[in-house]
Every structure is written in C-alpha cells, then in structure tokens.
C-alpha cells in the first residue's frame, strides 16, 4: 500500500473536500470575473458568435455549479453539468492544435471534465451540505445505505 493510498484511506472525506474546493475554484473565480466585467465579456464573446443570453447562462452555470460543488450541495448534478461544459468548451473553442496554448487549454478542459465526472460518481463525501439535507433523490435507499448511515453517525 502506498503512502498516498494510506492517506486517502485515513482521510477520504477530507480529500474529497479539498478536491471539491480545488475543482470549484476555477469556475467560481471565472464566473465572478465574467460577471464583474459583463459588458467586456459580452463584447468578447460576440466576436466568437456567443450572444448575451448565453453569456448569462454560462455565468450562472459557473457560479451556481461551482458553489454547489464547493459547498457539497447537489454537487453530483453540478459536477455533471460542469463536466459537460468543459467538454463543450474544449471542442468549441480549443481545437487549434497547431497553437500550443490552445492545445494546453483543450487538455486542461478534458482533465477538469474527468475530475468532475469522478466527483459525480463518488459524491461529495461526509464533509458536505448534502449530508445534512434530506433530499431523497441524492441518497440511495436500502441495506447498503443503512449500513453507510450507521457508519457515519
């Protein structure tokens, strides 16, 4: 067993929390930046054919899903949405592989999407708001969940 696997075995929920915060940071930061410079953002996005309503949607997605992931409330849904957003962004805006910077952004978007899909599968862990909110569609019912609930309490 490696040192890293020992660490993650001892502190899985802490690792999930730190991972969620790291994944969310880029989206919350970018969404805030786009919102605070809205007119410039709309002008820049118009050049590539993206209209103001879609810019508003992107800002809402980045802030809403980013905060959901950071806080761990509806994090699985936020992770899927941001994972799909990253795949779309990579294929729509970063396909000029002759440009090293574009290739880097393409690969970065794919890596972030992968992290988001892992988060969607794993869930946000015990250090999250989901744990404290009783939303039936977020929690599996049955013997396995009963055992998991008894282990967390």
UniProtKB/TrEMBL annotation:
Compartments it resides in: Cell membrane
Record key words, sorted: Cell membrane, Membrane, Transmembrane, Transmembrane helix
PANTHER family: INNER MEMBRANE PROTEIN YPHA-RELATED (PTHR33452:SF1), OXIDOREDUCTASE CATD-RELATED (PTHR33452)
Predominant place of localization: membrane
Membrane topology: Multi-pass membrane protein
Domain of life: Bacteria
Name of the featured protein: DoxX family protein
Similarity section: Belongs to the DoxX family.
Residue ranges of the TM segments: 44-61, 68-90, 110-129
């Amino acid at each position: 067993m490696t040192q890293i696997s020992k660490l993650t075995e001892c502190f899985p929920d802490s690792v999930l929390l730190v991972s969620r915060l790291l994944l969310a940071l880029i989206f919350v930061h970018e969404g805030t930046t786009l919102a605070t410079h809205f007119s410039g953002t709309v002008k820049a996005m118009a050049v590539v054919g993206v209209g103001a309503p879609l810019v508003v949607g992107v800002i809402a997605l980045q802030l809403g899903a980013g905060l959901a992931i950071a806080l761990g409330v509806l994090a699985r849904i936020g992770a899927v949405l941001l994972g799909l957003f990253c795949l779309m962004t990579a294929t729509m805006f970063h396909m000029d592989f002759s440009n090293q910077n574009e290739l880097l952004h393409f690969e970065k978007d794919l890596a972030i999407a992968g992290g988001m899909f892992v988060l969607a599968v794993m869930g946000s862990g015990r250090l999250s708001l989901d744990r404290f909110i009783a939303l039936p569609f977020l929690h599996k019912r049955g013997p396995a969940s009963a055992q998991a609930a008894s282990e967390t309490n």
